[in-house]
Q: What sequence folds into this?
């Protein structure tokens, strides 16, 4: 069973709501970028657009949304399929390793993007 330790005291409703809100943020970011590319943009205007504070904040919000969306989705997969029932005695240990690896990679990804957009 999934314990409070591995779920970080989240509920299914809060996960559902976070997934929906982050997907809307990611969709709006994608439409913004796609619209800019379809409109035709050269490097100078692309660079200028990404130097504005508003676009930096929007990019940071999109990256944080991607990290939250990915964490909730992968957490659901890990807790459904990496269990003792599915994999035997190593199931729970493998799930914890995968969860820690995912958290580590998402933190590195978010910090890297912050470093790139705010340098």
A:
């Amino acid at each position: 069973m999934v314990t409070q330790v591995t779920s970080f005291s989240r509920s299914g409703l809060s996960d559902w709501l976070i997934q929906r809100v982050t997907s809307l943020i990611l969709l709006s970011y994608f439409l913004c970028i796609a619209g800019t590319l379809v409109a035709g943009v050269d490097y100078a205007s692309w660079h200028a657009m990404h130097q504005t504070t508003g676009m930096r904040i929007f990019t940071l919000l999109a990256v944080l949304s991607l990290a939250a969306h990915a964490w909730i989705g992968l957490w659901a997969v890990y807790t459904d399929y990496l269990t003792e029932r599915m994999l035997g005695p190593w199931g729970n240990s493998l799930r914890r390793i995968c969860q820690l690896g995912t958290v580590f990679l998402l933190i590195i990804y978010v910090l890297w993007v912050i470093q790139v957009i705010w340098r």
